[in-house]
Specification:
By secondary structure, the protein is of the alpha/beta class. About 45% of the residues lie in helices and about 15% in strands.
């Protein structure tokens, strides 16, 4: 088995670093070149020359951050030089992009002279919207940051100082709440006196900690006023106390320990000497001042945080800096000031007290994080950080007067941030908004499945439906308790309980009568009503509910059989199918049939095409349909392309206004220029295809799953049923909570449309 060292060296060697430049625009044609470069590029140049502020409008400056280092204080490695610092700076740029959507660029300077560093940053500043100083040793970092903040009109932040300060302050606020203590009363011991330690402690003071209650310790012992070797930063924290000289002496009776020093300097005996419910932030990396195991063994009541991801309460700067800069850049702020830092602190702290999204629980393989000793700081993967922290910082920038640009519509800004990070698309937002306007009664078949139960609760919280959960109420309530879910306002139907006897009999009678000419009997139907899919679909069929969701436990083949029996196919069709929607960077695409028809013949493909046409319109898109095969327009006269060819011929004859053509290979479907040049006769000429009808289930299923696997940032919605008489929708075994909620929104809209058609 390879070690972490071997794996990380291989990653960096194979990829030659972690960054690359990608283009926002196409440069394929002469016209493209004219727009992006000469002669067209002169126009934005002239606009900016007349008004320098237009640089934010016409260039990427407003989303660009320079990560500047001299390599003198890299991680725990020390002064290793600018070249050796580059992997860290690249990593920091990755985090900026991944979590904040910010374009960040490593700038490694071959100088240790503060004057030269300041001058270099001044010279490159016109191309950047912000400056992130990184891994510059103290005390030089203080002076460099001070000078740049004074002389530049863009945000400047030394993340080693302020990032750590902001995150640890949020953690401290919450840890104090858990411990039942007030910041103005607690005794704080800080081990370490570098940039991070000084900045953290100053921010604690801004939040209410009293200077007289703080003792700082460096490598020479307690920083007291009796010492003559103190710089300006250390003198600020020098204590009047003469009874303490070492860390062991200082920490007796202390409420809080903040370590930003080196590993294994805090002993178990020292922890035992602290006050009740001690707070220990051991942030040295990779080895904390005391290990989590040792601290917990010494004091079970300890509230512990480290810089490591493998223990609870990680103080990680990635929780802060991408979002702080995001808010600063989006307001075109002139600085990152104290008000913006404090706003970030409170936003991060408050987030930890809110219910945790399922995606976070899944990332850490737990049922549910709950605010308390083992969770008082948000996890780095929490998708809400970008909205909560960025918005708080933007608010503070505007309120404190450093914003050049005011945000007027905060709901729109929140939506923009979610879309920026791929958490939401215009399509999903429209689905949710539509469903919220008229929420329907949705039956969730598999109430005993954690994901379906979570989805039902989330769908209710989103306001998109009135959930009805099928299952044993005791088991469901137990599961909800384990998952820390509230079932308030959610109906649970135990379909097998005696209290449901009358309803089972009524449903059986209806089903037996409906299928009497197909050999069905009442007794047979009665037995089926003990099965959740039969019972749940009958709820929809009889009007006891409006829509039905199933599929996490059930094989498709069985679900399809039940749907045909209970709900039936719409009379104008002989078949039904499913569609998946793919939201990608290239646009929104509709794929069919992805679930139902294994080996469709020409008549089946015709139904699928007609259903696809209607479904795409249902989602407010104009369908442009390509019928796919391995051949193009009759080039292969035998085998499977022939059935596609026949289906296309029928569709073009019966629906002359519909943009549909084929059979064609997928590359011709997706490349308009290639298709138009090679086959100018097509009905699709000049159009971009958005709907793909596959020749069989194997290709359709493989197609969308391949896209999903190759481009994980592509949003997938589905499967969406097409062609049943009532809103019956399927999930699959690997569906996430968000997948199920998305399908629920579709099912609700489906039910709304159904009622409108029926005049209800």
């Amino acid at each position: 088995m390879s070690t972490l060292k071997e794996e990380t060296l291989q990653l960096h060697e194979v990829h030659r670093g972690k960054l690359a430049v990608s283009l926002k625009v196409d440069i394929e044609t002469k016209h493209d070149l004219s727009l992006a470069y000469t002669p067209g590029v002169a126009e934005p140049c002239l606009e900016i020359a007349q008004d320098r502020e237009q640089v934010y409008r016409y260039t990427g400056k407003g989303n660009a951050v320079a990560i500047v280092t001299d390599g003198t204080a890299v991680l725990g490695l020390g002064d290793i030089g600018p070249e050796a610092a580059l992997p860290v700076m690249e990593g920091k740029a990755c985090l900026f992009k991944r979590f904040g959507g910010v374009d960040a660029y490593p700038i490694c300077l071959n100088t240790k002279d503060p004057e030269e560093i300041v001058r270099a940053v001044q010279l490159i500043a016109p191309g950047f919207g912000g400056i992130n100083l990184e891994d510059i040793k103290a005390p030089e970092c203080f002076e460099i940051e001070r000078r740049l903040k004074e002389e530049l009109d863009i945000p400047v932040m030394h993340d080693d100082q302020h990032g750590t300060a902001i995150i640890s302050s949020a953690g401290l606020i919450n840890a104090l709440q858990v411990a039942g203590k007030k910041i103005e009363n607690v005794k704080i011991v800080v081990n370490g006196a570098g940039a991070s330690a000084v900045s953290c402690t100053k921010l604690y003071v801004s939040l209410g900690a009293r200077l007289e209650n703080i003792v700082m310790v460096d490598s020479k012992g307690v920083i007291s006023k009796a010492r003559t070797d103190l710089n300006e930063q250390k003198r600020y924290f020098a204590t009047d106390r003469t009874d303490i000289h070492t860390l062991a002496e200082a920490i007796k009776g202390a409420d809080v320990f903040l370590g930003l020093s080196k590993g294994n300097v805090l002993s178990q005996d020292m922890v035992r000497s602290m006050a009740a419910s001690p707070i220990v932030f051991a942030l040295a990396n990779p080895t904390p001042e005391i290990s989590y195991e040792d601290a917990m063994a010494a004091r079970p009541d300890v509230l512990m945080a480290t810089g490591r991801s493998d223990y609870p309460n990680q103080i990680n700067n990635v929780i802060g800096f991408p979002y702080i800069f995001r808010g600063a850049l989006d307001t075109q702020a002139k600085a990152i000031n104290e008000e913006m830092k404090i706003a970030a602190v409170h936003a991060i702290a408050n987030l930890a007290k809110q219910p945790v999204p399922d995606v976070v629980n899944e990332a850490y393989h737990v049922n549910n994080f709950t605010f308390g000793p083992e969770y008082f700081i948000p996890k780095p993967v929490d998708p809400r950080l970008i909205t909560e922290v960025s918005i708080a910082v933007a608010h503070a920038a505007m309120k404190s007067g450093v914003a050049r640009k005011n945000i007027e519509d905060w709901d729109a800004y929140r939506t923009h941030l979610r879309e920026l990070m791929g958490q939401e698309s215009q399509l999903t937002r429209q689905l949710y908004d539509t469903a919220r306007r008229n929420p329907q009664r949705v039956v969730f078949a598999e109430g005993g499945h954690p994901n379906m139960l979570k989805a039902a609760v989330e769908a209710k919280a989103e306001g998109i439906c009135h959930p009805i959960i099928l299952g044993n109420e005791e088991r469901i309530e137990k599961l909800a308790h384990e998952l820390d879910l509230s079932l308030e306002g959610i109906e649970i139907v135990n379909l097998r309980h005696d209290r449901e006897t009358e309803r089972r009999e009524r449903y059986a009678k209806i089903l037996a009568e409906k299928r009497a000419r197909e050999g069905a009997t009442y007794d047979e139907a009665t037995d089926k009503m003990f099965e959740r899919n039969y019972f749940g679909m009958m709820m929809v069929e009889t009007g006891d509910a409006d829509a039905f969701i199933t599929g996490l436990y059930t094989k498709y083949s069985n679900t399809i059989k039940v749907a045909k029996e209970v709900i039936g196919i719409r009379p104008e069709y002989n078949h039904f199918g499913t569609m998946h929607i793919l939201n990608s960077k290239k646009g929104t695409y509709f794929l069919a049939d992805t679930l139902i028809n294994r080996h469709p013949d020409a008549s089946t493909l015709i139904d699928i095409a007609k259903l696809a046409d209607q479904t795409v319109r249902f989602f407010n898109h104009t369908p442009v349909i390509a019928m796919l095969s391995y051949s193009n327009f009759g080039s292969d006269q035998a085998g499977s392309p022939l059935k596609v060819h026949e289906a296309v011929a029928y569709m073009q004859k019966e629906y002359p206004e519909l943009a549909i053509d084929g059979e064609m290979q997928v590359n011709f479907a997706m490349n308009r220029e290639l298709r138009d040049a090679k086959y100018p006769f097509t009905r699709l000429k000049g159009k971009d295809v958005n709907t793909l009808v596959f020749p069989n289930l194997s290709s359709a299923n493989s197609g969308y799953k391949l896209i999903q696997a190759m481009t994980p940032d592509t949003e997938l919605i589905g499967p969406i049923q097409m062609g049943l008489n009532k809103p019956i929708h399927f999930t699959d075994i690997e569906s996430s909570v968000r997948d199920i909620v998305n399908i629920t929104a579709v099912a609700v809209i489906d039910a709304i449309v159904d009622k409108k058609k029926a005049g209800i």
